[in-house]
Design a protein that fits this description.
globular; alpha+beta; seven-stranded antiparallel beta sheet
Length: about 500
Protein backbone atom coordinates (compact mmCIF):
# COMPACT_ATOMS: atom_id res chain seq x y z
CA UNK A 1 0.00 0.00 0.00
CA UNK A 2 1.35 3.43 -0.96
CA UNK A 3 1.05 5.79 1.96
CA UNK A 4 0.18 9.39 1.06
CA UNK A 5 2.51 12.16 2.07
CA UNK A 6 1.54 15.01 4.33
CA UNK A 7 -0.96 17.46 2.85
CA UNK A 8 -3.15 20.38 3.85
CA UNK A 9 -6.50 18.62 3.43
CA UNK A 10 -8.59 18.33 6.59
CA UNK A 11 -9.86 14.90 7.44
CA UNK A 12 -12.64 13.51 9.56
CA UNK A 13 -12.72 10.55 11.84
CA UNK A 14 -14.40 7.32 10.82
CA UNK A 15 -18.15 7.78 10.10
CA UNK A 16 -18.98 5.42 12.97
CA UNK A 17 -16.74 7.24 15.45
CA UNK A 18 -19.77 8.86 17.11
CA UNK A 19 -20.99 5.36 18.05
CA UNK A 20 -17.79 4.55 19.93
CA UNK A 21 -17.87 7.91 21.71
CA UNK A 22 -21.50 7.23 22.65
CA UNK A 23 -20.65 3.79 24.03
CA UNK A 24 -17.84 5.29 26.13
CA UNK A 25 -20.19 7.94 27.53
CA UNK A 26 -22.92 5.41 28.28
CA UNK A 27 -20.38 3.22 30.06
CA UNK A 28 -19.43 6.16 32.28
CA UNK A 29 -23.09 7.00 32.97
CA UNK A 30 -24.29 3.43 33.39
CA UNK A 31 -24.51 3.35 37.20
CA UNK A 32 -26.41 6.69 37.50
CA UNK A 33 -28.84 5.59 34.78
CA UNK A 34 -29.49 2.25 36.49
CA UNK A 35 -30.04 4.05 39.81
CA UNK A 36 -32.57 6.40 38.18
CA UNK A 37 -34.46 3.45 36.69
CA UNK A 38 -34.54 1.55 39.99
CA UNK A 39 -35.60 4.46 42.18
CA UNK A 40 -37.94 5.77 39.50
CA UNK A 41 -39.77 2.44 39.44
CA UNK A 42 -40.40 2.68 43.19
CA UNK A 43 -42.15 6.04 42.96
CA UNK A 44 -45.35 4.63 41.50
CA UNK A 45 -47.46 5.60 38.48
CA UNK A 46 -47.71 9.25 39.50
CA UNK A 47 -44.01 9.66 38.70
CA UNK A 48 -44.10 8.22 35.17
CA UNK A 49 -42.14 11.22 33.91
CA UNK A 50 -39.27 10.22 36.23
CA UNK A 51 -38.70 7.14 34.07
CA UNK A 52 -38.19 9.33 30.98
CA UNK A 53 -35.00 10.81 32.44
CA UNK A 54 -32.76 7.95 31.16
CA UNK A 55 -34.21 8.36 27.65
CA UNK A 56 -33.57 12.10 27.74
CA UNK A 57 -30.01 11.53 28.97
CA UNK A 58 -29.33 8.95 26.24
CA UNK A 59 -30.76 11.27 23.58
CA UNK A 60 -28.49 14.06 24.85
CA UNK A 61 -25.49 11.72 24.72
CA UNK A 62 -26.33 10.71 21.16
CA UNK A 63 -26.60 14.35 20.09
CA UNK A 64 -23.32 15.19 21.83
CA UNK A 65 -21.53 12.26 20.16
CA UNK A 66 -22.79 13.21 16.69
CA UNK A 67 -21.83 16.86 17.21
CA UNK A 68 -18.34 15.81 18.29
CA UNK A 69 -17.97 13.83 15.07
CA UNK A 70 -19.25 16.69 12.90
CA UNK A 71 -16.96 19.28 14.50
CA UNK A 72 -13.77 17.20 14.83
CA UNK A 73 -11.20 17.73 12.07
CA UNK A 74 -7.52 16.92 11.79
CA UNK A 75 -4.86 17.84 9.26
CA UNK A 76 -1.49 16.19 8.73
CA UNK A 77 1.13 18.82 8.01
CA UNK A 78 4.77 18.45 7.08
CA UNK A 79 5.84 18.00 10.70
CA UNK A 80 2.72 18.90 12.71
CA UNK A 81 -0.68 17.43 13.45
CA UNK A 82 -3.42 20.10 13.61
CA UNK A 83 -6.71 19.27 15.35
CA UNK A 84 -9.86 21.40 15.40
CA UNK A 85 -12.65 20.41 17.77
CA UNK A 86 -15.41 21.80 19.97
CA UNK A 87 -19.12 22.53 19.59
CA UNK A 88 -19.69 25.86 21.34
CA UNK A 89 -16.06 26.62 22.20
CA UNK A 90 -13.87 26.01 19.17
CA UNK A 91 -10.34 24.74 19.82
CA UNK A 92 -7.36 24.50 17.48
CA UNK A 93 -4.45 22.40 18.68
CA UNK A 94 -1.11 22.03 16.90
CA UNK A 95 1.05 19.07 17.94
CA UNK A 96 4.58 18.81 16.45
CA UNK A 97 5.42 15.22 15.62
CA UNK A 98 8.81 15.62 17.30
CA UNK A 99 7.05 16.34 20.63
CA UNK A 100 4.99 13.14 20.56
CA UNK A 101 6.76 10.56 22.69
CA UNK A 102 4.36 7.64 22.72
CA UNK A 103 1.80 6.38 20.20
CA UNK A 104 -0.75 3.79 21.32
CA UNK A 105 -3.31 2.09 19.08
CA UNK A 106 -6.19 0.23 20.75
CA UNK A 107 -8.57 -2.31 19.21
CA UNK A 108 -11.27 -4.17 21.11
CA UNK A 109 -13.63 -6.68 19.51
CA UNK A 110 -16.03 -3.99 18.29
CA UNK A 111 -13.14 -2.03 16.78
CA UNK A 112 -11.91 -5.11 14.95
CA UNK A 113 -15.41 -5.82 13.67
CA UNK A 114 -15.59 -2.32 12.13
CA UNK A 115 -11.94 -2.33 11.03
CA UNK A 116 -11.07 0.75 13.11
CA UNK A 117 -8.75 1.66 15.97
CA UNK A 118 -8.36 4.30 18.67
CA UNK A 119 -5.14 6.29 18.54
CA UNK A 120 -3.65 8.07 21.54
CA UNK A 121 -0.74 10.49 21.25
CA UNK A 122 1.26 11.36 24.37
CA UNK A 123 3.96 13.91 25.12
CA UNK A 124 6.23 14.21 28.13
CA UNK A 125 4.02 16.62 30.07
CA UNK A 126 0.43 17.03 31.09
CA UNK A 127 -2.06 14.81 32.86
CA UNK A 128 -3.88 13.90 29.65
CA UNK A 129 -2.76 12.66 26.24
CA UNK A 130 -2.09 15.33 23.61
CA UNK A 131 -4.81 13.78 21.44
CA UNK A 132 -7.22 10.84 21.57
CA UNK A 133 -8.63 10.06 18.13
CA UNK A 134 -11.77 7.91 18.40
CA UNK A 135 -11.86 6.33 15.92
CA UNK A 136 -9.80 6.02 12.69
CA UNK A 137 -9.70 3.39 10.01
CA UNK A 138 -6.97 0.94 10.87
CA UNK A 139 -4.89 1.85 7.81
CA UNK A 140 -5.21 5.57 8.65
CA UNK A 141 -4.10 4.93 12.23
CA UNK A 142 -1.05 2.98 11.06
CA UNK A 143 -0.28 5.68 8.47
CA UNK A 144 -0.39 8.40 11.12
CA UNK A 145 1.83 6.33 13.37
CA UNK A 146 4.36 6.00 10.52
CA UNK A 147 4.31 9.74 9.84
CA UNK A 148 4.92 10.46 13.52
CA UNK A 149 7.77 7.94 13.56
CA UNK A 150 9.35 9.74 10.60
CA UNK A 151 8.51 13.17 12.10
CA UNK A 152 6.10 13.90 9.26
CA UNK A 153 8.57 13.48 6.41
CA UNK A 154 7.39 11.07 3.75
CA UNK A 155 9.92 8.69 2.20
CA UNK A 156 11.86 9.98 -0.76
CA UNK A 157 10.45 7.27 -3.00
CA UNK A 158 6.82 6.64 -2.17
CA UNK A 159 6.81 3.40 -4.18
CA UNK A 160 9.76 2.00 -2.25
CA UNK A 161 8.83 -0.83 0.12
CA UNK A 162 8.67 0.02 3.81
CA UNK A 163 11.59 -1.69 5.59
CA UNK A 164 10.63 -4.59 7.80
CA UNK A 165 10.92 -4.09 11.54
CA UNK A 166 13.42 -6.22 13.43
CA UNK A 167 11.78 -8.73 15.75
CA UNK A 168 13.43 -8.51 19.17
CA UNK A 169 11.13 -10.76 21.21
CA UNK A 170 8.04 -12.93 20.81
CA UNK A 171 6.24 -14.94 23.47
CA UNK A 172 5.20 -18.50 22.50
CA UNK A 173 2.26 -20.18 24.30
CA UNK A 174 4.45 -21.98 26.84
CA UNK A 175 5.97 -18.66 27.90
CA UNK A 176 2.45 -17.32 28.45
CA UNK A 177 1.72 -20.32 30.67
CA UNK A 178 4.82 -19.56 32.72
CA UNK A 179 3.87 -15.88 32.81
CA UNK A 180 0.46 -16.75 34.24
CA UNK A 181 2.01 -18.98 36.91
CA UNK A 182 4.59 -16.35 37.86
CA UNK A 183 2.28 -13.33 37.90
CA UNK A 184 -0.63 -15.05 39.73
CA UNK A 185 -2.87 -12.11 38.82
CA UNK A 186 -5.98 -14.09 39.68
CA UNK A 187 -5.19 -13.67 43.38
CA UNK A 188 -5.20 -9.88 43.00
CA UNK A 189 -8.45 -9.94 41.02
CA UNK A 190 -10.22 -12.22 43.50
CA UNK A 191 -8.99 -10.16 46.46
CA UNK A 192 -10.22 -6.96 44.78
CA UNK A 193 -13.60 -8.55 44.02
CA UNK A 194 -14.01 -9.76 47.62
CA UNK A 195 -13.07 -6.30 48.91
CA UNK A 196 -15.58 -4.63 46.56
CA UNK A 197 -18.38 -6.99 47.61
CA UNK A 198 -17.52 -6.43 51.26
CA UNK A 199 -17.82 -2.67 50.72
CA UNK A 200 -21.10 -2.98 48.81
CA UNK A 201 -22.94 -4.97 51.48
CA UNK A 202 -23.33 -4.10 55.19
CA UNK A 203 -20.77 -5.68 57.48
CA UNK A 204 -23.47 -7.42 59.50
CA UNK A 205 -24.86 -9.04 56.36
CA UNK A 206 -21.40 -10.17 55.23
CA UNK A 207 -20.56 -11.54 58.69
CA UNK A 208 -23.90 -13.39 58.91
CA UNK A 209 -23.38 -14.88 55.44
CA UNK A 210 -19.88 -16.13 56.28
CA UNK A 211 -21.07 -17.55 59.61
CA UNK A 212 -24.06 -19.26 57.98
CA UNK A 213 -21.96 -20.82 55.22
CA UNK A 214 -19.38 -21.97 57.77
CA UNK A 215 -22.02 -23.66 59.90
CA UNK A 216 -23.50 -25.41 56.87
CA UNK A 217 -20.06 -26.65 55.82
CA UNK A 218 -19.28 -27.93 59.32
CA UNK A 219 -22.69 -29.57 59.57
CA UNK A 220 -22.25 -31.30 56.22
CA UNK A 221 -18.78 -32.50 57.23
CA UNK A 222 -20.04 -33.86 60.58
CA UNK A 223 -22.76 -35.87 58.81
CA UNK A 224 -20.14 -37.65 56.70
CA UNK A 225 -18.42 -38.90 59.90
CA UNK A 226 -14.90 -38.26 58.56
CA UNK A 227 -11.94 -39.08 60.75
CA UNK A 228 -9.41 -36.41 61.66
CA UNK A 229 -7.02 -37.74 59.00
CA UNK A 230 -9.72 -37.68 56.33
CA UNK A 231 -10.71 -34.17 57.34
CA UNK A 232 -7.09 -33.01 57.03
CA UNK A 233 -6.72 -34.68 53.63
CA UNK A 234 -9.96 -33.10 52.44
CA UNK A 235 -8.82 -29.67 53.60
CA UNK A 236 -5.48 -30.05 51.80
CA UNK A 237 -7.24 -31.29 48.67
CA UNK A 238 -9.59 -28.31 48.79
CA UNK A 239 -6.68 -25.88 49.11
CA UNK A 240 -4.84 -27.55 46.21
CA UNK A 241 -7.97 -27.40 44.07
CA UNK A 242 -8.40 -23.71 44.87
CA UNK A 243 -4.74 -23.09 44.07
CA UNK A 244 -5.10 -24.95 40.76
CA UNK A 245 -8.15 -22.89 39.82
CA UNK A 246 -6.29 -19.68 40.65
CA UNK A 247 -3.37 -20.76 38.47
CA UNK A 248 -5.68 -21.63 35.58
CA UNK A 249 -7.38 -18.25 35.87
CA UNK A 250 -3.99 -16.51 35.96
CA UNK A 251 -2.88 -18.39 32.84
CA UNK A 252 -6.11 -17.40 31.08
CA UNK A 253 -5.57 -13.74 32.01
CA UNK A 254 -1.99 -13.93 30.69
CA UNK A 255 -3.27 -15.26 27.33
CA UNK A 256 -5.92 -12.53 27.18
CA UNK A 257 -3.39 -9.76 27.80
CA UNK A 258 -0.23 -11.01 26.08
CA UNK A 259 -1.35 -13.32 23.27
CA UNK A 260 0.63 -12.57 20.12
CA UNK A 261 3.18 -10.47 22.02
CA UNK A 262 5.79 -9.03 19.66
CA UNK A 263 8.54 -6.54 20.43
CA UNK A 264 9.94 -5.01 17.24
CA UNK A 265 12.33 -2.18 16.38
CA UNK A 266 12.38 0.10 13.33
CA UNK A 267 14.03 3.50 12.89
CA UNK A 268 15.23 3.39 16.51
CA UNK A 269 11.62 3.10 17.66
CA UNK A 270 10.27 0.21 19.74
CA UNK A 271 6.80 -1.21 19.11
CA UNK A 272 4.85 -3.73 21.19
CA UNK A 273 1.73 -5.56 19.95
CA UNK A 274 -0.26 -7.81 22.26
CA UNK A 275 -3.73 -9.00 23.23
CA UNK A 276 -6.18 -11.78 22.35
CA UNK A 277 -9.59 -10.10 22.25
CA UNK A 278 -8.39 -6.52 22.65
CA UNK A 279 -5.30 -5.75 20.57
CA UNK A 280 -2.97 -3.01 21.83
CA UNK A 281 -0.15 -1.55 19.75
CA UNK A 282 2.20 0.91 21.50
CA UNK A 283 5.38 2.48 20.18
CA UNK A 284 7.99 4.80 21.63
CA UNK A 285 11.32 6.20 20.45
CA UNK A 286 14.30 4.70 22.21
CA UNK A 287 15.53 8.15 23.23
CA UNK A 288 12.31 8.68 25.22
CA UNK A 289 13.09 5.83 27.62
CA UNK A 290 14.13 7.33 30.95
CA UNK A 291 14.92 4.28 33.06
CA UNK A 292 15.20 0.50 32.71
CA UNK A 293 14.17 -2.05 35.32
CA UNK A 294 14.99 -5.75 35.57
CA UNK A 295 12.90 -7.77 38.03
CA UNK A 296 13.34 -11.28 39.34
CA UNK A 297 11.07 -12.74 42.00
CA UNK A 298 11.25 -16.12 43.70
CA UNK A 299 8.93 -17.71 41.10
CA UNK A 300 10.94 -16.09 38.31
CA UNK A 301 14.07 -17.85 39.60
CA UNK A 302 12.15 -21.12 39.91
CA UNK A 303 11.31 -20.96 36.18
CA UNK A 304 14.63 -19.36 35.21
CA UNK A 305 13.02 -16.13 33.98
CA UNK A 306 13.19 -12.34 34.40
CA UNK A 307 11.18 -9.27 33.44
CA UNK A 308 12.36 -6.09 31.66
CA UNK A 309 10.34 -2.89 32.09
CA UNK A 310 10.93 0.73 31.08
CA UNK A 311 9.82 4.16 32.26
CA UNK A 312 9.07 6.57 29.44
CA UNK A 313 8.63 10.33 29.31
CA UNK A 314 4.89 10.60 28.67
CA UNK A 315 1.89 12.48 29.92
CA UNK A 316 -0.22 11.51 32.86
CA UNK A 317 2.64 10.63 35.16
CA UNK A 318 3.06 7.31 33.39
CA UNK A 319 0.15 5.92 35.38
CA UNK A 320 -1.10 3.62 32.63
CA UNK A 321 -4.66 3.52 33.93
CA UNK A 322 -5.98 1.56 30.94
CA UNK A 323 -2.90 -0.56 30.26
CA UNK A 324 -2.01 0.95 26.86
CA UNK A 325 1.33 2.58 27.67
CA UNK A 326 4.47 0.78 26.60
CA UNK A 327 6.02 -0.38 29.85
CA UNK A 328 7.01 -4.01 29.40
CA UNK A 329 9.65 -4.83 26.83
CA UNK A 330 9.89 -8.40 28.11
CA UNK A 331 7.02 -9.50 30.38
CA UNK A 332 8.86 -12.80 30.82
CA UNK A 333 12.11 -14.04 29.29
CA UNK A 334 15.28 -15.88 30.24
CA UNK A 335 17.97 -13.86 32.04
CA UNK A 336 20.20 -14.14 28.96
CA UNK A 337 17.43 -12.73 26.74
CA UNK A 338 16.70 -9.81 29.09
CA UNK A 339 20.40 -9.04 29.45
CA UNK A 340 20.79 -9.26 25.67
CA UNK A 341 17.91 -6.82 25.11
CA UNK A 342 19.40 -4.39 27.61
CA UNK A 343 22.82 -4.66 25.99
CA UNK A 344 21.33 -4.20 22.50
CA UNK A 345 19.30 -1.12 23.41
CA UNK A 346 22.11 0.38 25.52
CA UNK A 347 25.15 -0.66 23.47
CA UNK A 348 27.73 1.22 25.57
CA UNK A 349 26.46 -0.26 28.82
CA UNK A 350 28.71 -2.72 30.65
CA UNK A 351 26.20 -5.31 31.82
CA UNK A 352 26.34 -6.61 34.38
CA UNK A 353 28.67 -4.03 35.96
CA UNK A 354 32.15 -5.29 36.68
CA UNK A 355 32.01 -4.02 40.26
CA UNK A 356 29.19 -3.00 42.60
CA UNK A 357 29.73 -0.37 45.29
CA UNK A 358 28.33 -1.54 48.63
CA UNK A 359 26.29 0.58 51.03
CA UNK A 360 26.47 0.90 54.80
CA UNK A 361 25.09 -2.07 56.72
CA UNK A 362 24.74 -0.15 59.98
CA UNK A 363 21.17 -0.04 61.14
CA UNK A 364 20.04 -2.80 58.77
CA UNK A 365 17.15 -3.54 61.13
CA UNK A 366 15.45 -0.34 59.92
CA UNK A 367 14.08 -2.32 56.99
CA UNK A 368 12.07 -4.58 59.30
CA UNK A 369 10.59 -1.73 61.36
CA UNK A 370 7.23 -1.82 59.47
CA UNK A 371 6.92 -5.56 60.15
CA UNK A 372 7.89 -5.02 63.80
CA UNK A 373 5.24 -2.33 64.32
CA UNK A 374 2.51 -4.20 62.42
CA UNK A 375 3.21 -7.54 64.12
CA UNK A 376 3.40 -5.92 67.54
CA UNK A 377 0.11 -4.07 67.11
CA UNK A 378 -1.63 -7.17 65.74
CA UNK A 379 -0.27 -9.35 68.53
CA UNK A 380 -1.43 -6.87 71.17
CA UNK A 381 -4.97 -6.82 69.78
CA UNK A 382 -5.19 -10.60 69.36
CA UNK A 383 -3.71 -11.27 72.80
CA UNK A 384 -6.35 -9.05 74.36
CA UNK A 385 -9.06 -10.98 72.49
CA UNK A 386 -7.78 -14.59 72.47
CA UNK A 387 -5.06 -14.81 75.12
CA UNK A 388 -1.58 -16.31 74.54
CA UNK A 389 -2.49 -17.52 71.01
CA UNK A 390 -2.48 -13.88 69.98
CA UNK A 391 1.35 -13.87 70.15
CA UNK A 392 1.58 -16.00 66.98
CA UNK A 393 2.09 -12.95 64.66
CA UNK A 394 5.44 -12.37 66.42
CA UNK A 395 6.75 -15.53 64.75
CA UNK A 396 7.04 -13.44 61.57
CA UNK A 397 9.75 -11.22 63.08
CA UNK A 398 12.74 -13.63 62.72
CA UNK A 399 12.03 -14.05 59.01
CA UNK A 400 11.57 -10.31 58.61
CA UNK A 401 14.90 -9.62 60.32
CA UNK A 402 16.69 -12.25 58.22
CA UNK A 403 15.23 -10.79 55.01
CA UNK A 404 16.18 -7.23 56.03
CA UNK A 405 19.76 -8.29 56.68
CA UNK A 406 19.98 -10.00 53.29
CA UNK A 407 18.48 -6.99 51.54
CA UNK A 408 21.03 -4.56 52.94
CA UNK A 409 23.97 -6.81 52.09
CA UNK A 410 22.75 -7.08 48.48
CA UNK A 411 22.16 -3.34 47.97
CA UNK A 412 24.67 -1.68 45.67
CA UNK A 413 25.26 0.84 42.91
CA UNK A 414 27.56 1.41 39.96
CA UNK A 415 28.28 4.72 38.19
CA UNK A 416 30.27 4.97 34.96
CA UNK A 417 30.76 7.72 32.37
CA UNK A 418 27.29 7.23 30.87
CA UNK A 419 24.91 5.61 33.34
CA UNK A 420 24.02 4.94 36.94
CA UNK A 421 22.84 1.49 38.02
CA UNK A 422 21.17 0.57 41.32
CA UNK A 423 20.28 -2.86 42.62
CA UNK A 424 18.28 -4.03 45.61
CA UNK A 425 15.95 -6.63 47.03
CA UNK A 426 16.75 -10.20 47.98
CA UNK A 427 13.64 -12.36 47.88
CA UNK A 428 12.35 -10.18 45.03
CA UNK A 429 15.40 -8.77 43.25
CA UNK A 430 15.60 -5.76 40.98
CA UNK A 431 18.07 -3.68 38.99
CA UNK A 432 17.47 -0.06 37.83
CA UNK A 433 19.48 1.69 35.08
CA UNK A 434 19.30 5.37 34.07
CA UNK A 435 21.45 7.40 31.68
CA UNK A 436 23.22 10.43 33.11
CA UNK A 437 21.91 12.51 30.18
CA UNK A 438 18.34 11.87 31.43
CA UNK A 439 18.88 13.09 35.01
CA UNK A 440 16.92 16.25 35.86
CA UNK A 441 17.33 16.69 39.61
CA UNK A 442 19.06 15.27 42.67
CA UNK A 443 17.71 15.10 46.20
CA UNK A 444 19.57 14.24 49.40
CA UNK A 445 17.44 13.12 52.37
CA UNK A 446 18.40 12.29 55.95
CA UNK A 447 15.80 10.87 58.31
CA UNK A 448 16.26 10.88 62.11
CA UNK A 449 17.57 7.31 61.88
CA UNK A 450 19.92 8.34 59.07
CA UNK A 451 21.35 11.05 61.30
CA UNK A 452 21.71 8.50 64.09
CA UNK A 453 23.72 6.10 61.89
CA UNK A 454 25.52 8.68 59.74
CA UNK A 455 23.80 7.68 56.47
CA UNK A 456 21.74 9.38 53.77
CA UNK A 457 19.52 8.64 50.76
CA UNK A 458 20.26 10.10 47.31
CA UNK A 459 17.26 10.22 44.95
CA UNK A 460 17.76 10.59 41.18
CA UNK A 461 14.94 12.22 39.22
CA UNK A 462 14.31 11.84 35.49
CA UNK A 463 11.44 13.04 33.28
CA UNK A 464 9.60 9.74 33.43
CA UNK A 465 11.11 7.51 36.13
CA UNK A 466 7.85 7.03 38.04
CA UNK A 467 8.28 3.29 38.30
CA UNK A 468 8.84 1.24 41.41
CA UNK A 469 11.13 0.84 43.17
CA UNK A 470 12.24 4.48 43.14
CA UNK A 471 15.54 5.34 41.53
CA UNK A 472 17.50 6.09 44.70
CA UNK A 473 20.67 5.11 46.53
CA UNK A 474 19.84 4.22 50.13
CA UNK A 475 22.06 3.67 53.19
CA UNK A 476 24.94 5.68 51.77
CA UNK A 477 27.60 6.98 54.14
CA UNK A 478 26.91 10.70 54.56
CA UNK A 479 30.26 11.82 53.16
CA UNK A 480 29.93 9.45 50.20
CA UNK A 481 26.39 10.72 49.51
CA UNK A 482 27.69 14.31 49.47
CA UNK A 483 30.50 13.33 47.08
CA UNK A 484 28.12 11.52 44.72
CA UNK A 485 25.69 14.43 44.73
CA UNK A 486 28.50 16.85 43.81
CA UNK A 487 29.83 14.48 41.13
CA UNK A 488 26.46 13.88 39.51
CA UNK A 489 25.58 17.57 39.80
CA UNK A 490 28.68 18.49 37.80
CA UNK A 491 27.81 15.88 35.17
CA UNK A 492 24.28 17.26 34.89
CA UNK A 493 25.57 20.83 34.52
CA UNK A 494 27.88 20.02 31.62
CA UNK A 495 25.58 17.59 29.78
CA UNK A 496 22.68 18.38 27.50
CA UNK A 497 19.40 16.98 28.73
CA UNK A 498 18.04 14.30 26.36
CA UNK A 499 14.39 13.32 26.85
Amino acid sequence: MNLPSADNAERRLHPWSWLFVLLRQIQQMLLPLVAVLIFGGRRGDEAWWFQLIPLVVIAALVASSVLQYLTYRYRIGADTLVIRSGVFERTRREIPFARIHNVAAHQNLLHRLFGVAELRLESAAGDKPEAEMRVLRLDQALELERLIRQRGHAPVATDAPVPEADLLLALPPMELVRLGLVSNKALVVVAAAVGALYQMFPREMAADFIEQQGRQALGYASQLHFSSTAMAISAVAGLLTLLLLMWLLSIGMAFMQYHGFRLTEADRRLTVERGLLTRVRSSVARRRIQAWTLREGALHRLFGRRQLRVDIASGGGNEDKDGRALKELAPLATPATCDGLLQHLLPQLQWPPLQWQAVSTRGWWRLCLPALLASGALAAVLTHETGPWGLLPLLWLPWSAFKARRQVTRMGYSIDAQRVTVRGGWWNRWWRVAELDKLQALQLDRSPLDRRFGTATLTLDTAGAFGAPPLQLRFLEEQRAQELMAQLGQEMARRRLRW
